[in-house]
Design goal:
It holds the Pfam family PPK2. Its EC number is 2.7.4.-. Belongs to the polyphosphate kinase 2 (PPK2) family. Class I subfamily. By secondary structure, the protein is of the alpha/beta class. It has one domain: P-loop containing nucleotide triphosphate hydrolases (Rossmann fold, 3-Layer(aba) Sandwich), CATH 3.40.50. It is about 45% helix and about 10% strand. The protein contains eleven helices and six strands. A six-stranded mixed beta sheet has the order 2-3-1-4-5-6, sandwiched between helices. Helix 2 runs parallel beside helix 11 and helix 3 packs across helix 11. The chain is globular, with a radius of gyration of 21 Å.
Length: about 280
């Protein structure tokens, strides 16, 4: 701990680090956190500039966040929208379909929440529920799954032709990391609400999820709507790099004015066809 008199005259981070070394205080963790918060704010500023451009040009952007339970989708979305104009952005997190919706064309309720002109929307799970979660958990039958897999690329091609930009993220974590996050949720009364009966099956059905996930990538990764993998167990890194990727997809007035790096790490964020390739930086 620092004493008040020791902090007198300390004006820069460098001076603080030097003082910490002198008195034997480990500041690596708080400094790392401070750097993350600083970088996050700058990237959020860039995203606000992008959102202004989207609103002005009447663009339509849908960013899909998919991944296993506890992969960090919700936390990342929270950081994306934290400082955005709510009139030009929004979060889509559809609940269990009603009886009426169950009788509709599967994509119908998603069409109703697609971004309007001038909007960017962030989907906390999407129509791809039917590609992985539903068949694994028995929430759809084989015929429904097969119909979805036949139709989804045509559906996304129609969105592409109509001018809607769709970015499809898959947040990837290891089995061990998922278990660690589940344990943290169960031991924290502030996070316990996130834990559901479906989560209990996450570890038990891990390999089953993997099979359907790989089938989804194989069948639905296209040139007009590719899958983008965010491959890291570090939540902060996942948030920063996914933000960078979205920003990299657009040209907008004032881009780069914050001086923050807008180049995403290709070893963390990469398209599906590069899944097994790593790059030396």
């Amino acid at each position: 701990m620092f004493l008040a008199e020791q902090l007198v005259g300390i004006k820069t981070r460098k001076q603080l680090v030097e003082l910490a070394k002198e008195i034997g205080v480990d500041v690596k963790k708080p400094l790392k956190r401070a750097k993350y918060e600083e970088e996050l704010l700058l990237l959020q500023t860039e995203l606000a500039l992008l959102t202004e451009y989207i609103a002005k040009k009447k663009l339509r952007v849908a960013v899909l966040f998919e991944g296993r339970d506890a992969a960090g989708k919700g936390g990342s979305i929270k950081r994306f929208v934290e400082h955005l104009n709510p009139n030009a952005s929004g979060v889509v997190a559809l609940s269990k379909p009603t009886e009426i919706e169950k009788g509709q064309w599967y994509f119908q309720r998603y069409i109703e929440v697609l971004p309007n002109p001038g909007q960017i929307k962030f989907f906390d799970r999407s129509w791809y529920n039917r590609a992985v979660v539903e068949p694994v958990m028995g929430f759809c039958n084989d015929k429904q799954y097969e119909i979805f897999m036949r139709q989804v690329t045509n559906f996304e091609h129609m969105l592409y032709e109509d001018g809607i930009t769709v970015i499809k993220f898959w947040f990837d974590i290891t089995r061990e990391e998922q278990q660690k996050r589940f344990d943290a949720r169960r031991g924290n009364p502030l996070k316990e609400w996130k834990f559901s009966p479906v989560d209990l099956k996450g570890q038990e059905l891990w390999d089953h999820f993997t099979d359907y996930k790989e089938a989804m990538f194989l069948e639905t990764h296209t040139s007009f709507s590719p899958w983008v993998i965010v491959d890291t167990n570090n939540k902060e890194e996942a948030r920063l790099e996914s933000l960078r990727y979205v920003l990299s997809r657009f040209k907008y007035p004032g881009k780069g004015k914050t001086k923050v790096s807008l180049k995403f790490d290709p070893n963390v964020v990469f398209k599906y066809y590069r899944k097994n390739e790593k790059f030396d930086l």
